[in-house]
Known about the structure:
Elements: H1 2-23, E1 26-27, H2 37-41, E2 52-53, E3 68-71, E4 74-77, H3 80-97, E5 101-103, H4 109-120, E6 126-129, H5 140-146, E7 150-153, E8 156-157, E9 162-163, H6 165-174, E10 179-183, H7 193-200, E11 205-209, H8 214-218, H9 225-228, E12 232-236, E13 247-251, H10 254-267, E14 271-272, H11 274-311, E15 315-316, E16 328-332, H12 339-348, E17 351-352, E18 354-358, E19 361-367, H13 369-373, H14 378-393, H15 399-406, H16 417-423
Parallel strand pairs: 1-17, 6-7, 6-10, 10-11, 11-12
Antiparallel strand pairs: 2-14, 3-4, 5-13, 8-9, 12-13, 15-16, 16-19, 18-19
Amino acid sequence: METSLKDFETILHLINKEEIDSNDTIHMTANENIMSKLSKHYLKSTLSYRYHVGMFDDQKNLTVSRSCLIKNSLMLRCLSPIFLLEQQAREYVKKMFFAEYADFRPLSGMHTVFCILSTLTKPNDRVYVFTTESVGHAATVSLLKSLGRKVSFIPFCEKKLDIDLEKLSKQILIEKPNAILFDFGTPFYPLPIREIREIVGNDVKMIYDASHVLGLIAGGQFQNPLLEGCDVLIGNTHKTFPGPQKGMILYKNKSLGKEIATEIFKSAISAQHTHHAIALYVTIIEMYIHGKEYANQIIKNNHALSQALINEGFKIFKRKNQFSLSHMIAITGDFPIDHHVACADLHNSNISTNSRILYDFPAVRIGVQEVTRKGMKEKDMVQLAKFFKEIILDRKNISSKIKEFNNKFNSIEYSLDEIYEKLF
């Protein structure tokens, strides 16, 4: 036992060190973000180990009293202030995304996909998704097969870097879909949603996974799927939307949303994670107030960094000579070293990015959403590009220089942390 505890303490020490190293790192992965002090405070709430069941609009069916509620014959303590916060968050979300109904109970992005596919479609239904070789998520096909759904693939033209609408028109005559899931894993540019709705008609349910660009949509800087023809908008809430690792489902039609929400409670969610729910609601309110400014700065920083990287000798992924219209940037072309090694060198110098194959070419994938929330502007993107050159092209380790630069940005912008300072 003594040896085991010693090993346990050693591991905890390593985790503590990892936290310190993370704080010294400039995080530029496309799939992460940083939370505000106010939102993060509620992740350690003592309510985190108390059950939070139901939704605000269910309260009339929950037999709510001052201190308790009854759901399916089970009496629980009623966390009514959280329901009130959910009500406020829901009204803001409906305005930001032009949705009639919102469900915040999913626990993650992938759980959101499971919730909607298992309730909106039936066994043997045909669902169209992207291939992982184009822009699709790696887990979608396996999930659909495990649910007993038939899988077809959205034809994607790698030359145009867009959906092949002509092929899609012909394909659906042979394999008519019941639903289309745009499992958009690398959204550099918007999709032709309006055109696809015209092709497939009104009977096909269209679901848009906005996990990467949810914050940009909220801020009016990306396409709005519900306005363009989709029935459902889903996504996790910790990429461009700077909240906890959770998920949300937004519906164009309120009656459909309420119907699916009931089915989800029966088969996919009983109680959500209370602390994550509170943190998400806080983030939604922050985004309602600051989202437009935040999303606008993300795009400005993207284009500033893209141009600065080109000036430093890098090749940047573009479509029709146009920079990415999201938070993502991909360094492509001939690296002096393997792209995995380039990414590892960045990590060793305290810049976190992803390396992956995009459309059959090696790339270092970058996201500017977190550095933007830490207060970096266009001039700082120029400095970051110089760091990339020193690390990748000059093969230098400049971790101490990166730490010094990163320490200049200690606040979280586009937040309500002034309220945190008052309350705590």
